[in-house]
Known about the structure:
By secondary structure, the chain is α+β, with helices and mostly antiparallel strands. 30% of the residues lie in helices and 35% in strands.
Amino acid sequence: MEKLAVRNVVESDNAILRYMAGKCSPLDVHTLYTYWIICKFYSKGSFILLSDDQPAGYIMSIETGEEVFVWQIGLMSEYRGKGYSNMLIDKVINYAKAVNKNVGVSIALANKASYGAFSSYCRSNGLSFENDGSLSIRDMIDSSNDEDEQIYKIVLHK
């Protein structure tokens, strides 16, 4: 039987998170340094899912003055469609509740899986998943890095 565990990321998880991002299309793969920053300074709100002690997925969030903002969520392909994203989202929701903040999420228009995971989680848990605007960023060096995303808010505290 598969043994699942979710734990906070630790500093040495940076390369694993970057590797998983590369395997979780359509996610952006950031620099190793970016993943190290998350693991080092934002570990309280970032988690890794292990299946039989092997990396299966992750969620990274950063706490701002206003909210806990989900940076990225990813599941390796063989773990998708099994509800495992709920385990990861639940950890961030509980963290946000503990620090008395709402949760922000930005989702690329093409990333139907992330939208489905968050909206389904919210429906199942009686939480609102509100559109909170959009984001459009143009890269001056490489237009393939342009970003067009919808921003959502999960309201936990009014």
